[in-house]
Amino acid sequence: MPPRRPEATPEDIAEAFGVSRESLDRLKAYVALLSQWQGRINLIGPASPAEIWTRHVADSLQLLPLIGRKAGRLVDLGSGAGFPGLVLAIVLSGEAGNTIQLIESNGKKVAFLRQAARITNSSARIHQGRIEQMGAETVGGVADIITARALARLDTLVAMAAPFAGPHTRALFHKGQDVDRELTETTKSWRIDATKHPSRVDPSGCIVEIRGFEGAKRN
Fold first, then answer.
1. What residues pair up with 143 in beta bridges, in sequence order?
2. Share of the chain above pLDDT 70, in %
3. 3-state DSSP call for residue 62?
């Protein structure tokens, strides 16, 4: 069932994306903490707990079929409140060989992410600092997967991701209705292989998959 329907429950969303009961319980703890902190700092826009599940959690979970259970080294850029990075960490960090690493510059959001990682017993590693000042050495080697949601235009995302990437890295970026224009602008400056995957949550959106970072150099 489409998880964005208003009547969709956390259980509906978990079933739609193959999330275990244990992971669902940890996601519920995360959403409860997010709702508590939202009253003190602006982590996301105004949203009820139900909207958090349909607009944010489900939007993050839709990456799972594209990633698979063996994510390897996953790096989430500009993690904010944890979408999609912490959601993916909650679901994937129990798999052997996976390391989920989140990068966020805002100190208050970093504090939230660290507490959320603790209470959900996820093994997410959280780095505070500007993305532009980091690279593969920060996260222990080149990334297998790079994610980002609601962070920047596609050409900027490619520039941010390139220092973390190797020849086999895949990037998965949430994009909206302006994706074709952003792709056109990006390919004027960067040589990349891009594939659009329709969003399962937002009819006007998609997930842009970027490969070929070995050749992702400015033209």
1. 165
2. 94
3. coil
- Name the residue range of residue 68's domain: 64-215
Residue 90 lies in a domain: yes
Within-domain flag for 5: no
The answer as to whether 167 is a domain residue is yes
Q: Are 210 and 193 in contact (CB under 8 A)?
A: yes
Domain total for the chain?
Answer: 1
Spatial distance between the Cα atoms of 186 and 58, rounded to a whole number of angstroms = 27
pTM over 0.90? The answer is yes
Query: What is the C-alpha separation between 126 and 102, in angstroms, rounded?
Result: 5
165 part of a folded domain: yes
Quickly count: other Cβ atoms within 10 Å of residue 44's Cβ. Answer: 17
| pLDDT above 80 for 215 | no
The two tokens of residue 10 are 């956390």
Per residue in 173-212, pLDDT (tens digit) is 999 999 999 999 998 888 889 999 999 999 999 999 999 8
